[in-house]
Amino acid sequence: MSTRQDIFANLVDENQGIIHKVCRTYADSDEEHKDMFQEVVLQLWSSFDSFKEESKFSTWMYRVALNTAITLFRKKKKAITTTEIEEYHSHQYKEIVEHDKQEEIDILYKSIKQLTEIERALVLLYLEEKPYKEIAETIGITEGNARVKINRVKVKLKEIMQQWI
């Protein structure tokens, strides 16, 4: 018989892609990504008892991951930003040898990072091809409102992406 910890570990393992996508959307570095991933898993475990299975685990996981990421993002915005010297130099001398597809993905993520927290969440769920009903449930809005907001965000995202192209 599986323990609650085993069940949790299996669910997180099966759905960890969700956490990575949320972290990539809100973190600016690999280190931040790792820290945010750990914080999200910690928050998932802390609130696992509140998961009532009224929705899919992935929907609940998105909600917890997004709330955690947005909270950390807001705290980070208030903190003083510093750059490590090694990081600065690595960016200065980095060769641009990326494939077109990777460049497009990078442009997309740069553009997404210019959206508000809620808009980022909407885009992330939309790119995951989640149905509007699930997006609405995850974000906590009506399905109709989700459709309207996503259409507006698509227009805004296209405008933002034009500056990188």
SSE map:
Layout: H1 4-26, H2 30-46, H3 57-78, H4 85-92, H5 100-112, H6 117-127, H7 132-139, H8 143-162
CATH superfamily of the largest domain: RNA polymerase sigma factor, region 2, helix turn helix motif
Per DSSP, what share of the residues sits in E-state strands of 2 or more residues?
under 5%
- What structural category arises from helix and sheet content? mainly alpha
The appropriate CATH architecture of the largest domain is Orthogonal Bundle
Shape: globular
Estimate the mean pLDDT confidence.
84
Number of domains: 2
Low-confidence segments, given as residue ranges, are: 92-98
Tally of helical segments: 8
Domain RNA polymerase sigma-70 region: 11-78
GO molecular function: DNA binding; sigma factor activity
Family: Belongs to the sigma-70 factor family. ECF subfamily.
Keywords: Sigma factor, Transcription, Transcription regulation
Please summarize what this structure is.
With 165 residues, this protein is mainly alpha-helical. The protein folds into two domains: 1-94, RNA polymerase sigma factor, region 2, helix turn helix motif (Rna Polymerase Sigma Factor, Chain: A, Orthogonal Bundle); 98-165, Winged helix-like DNA-binding domain superfamily/Winged helix DNA-binding domain (Arc Repressor Mutant, subunit A). The chain is built from eight helices and no strands.
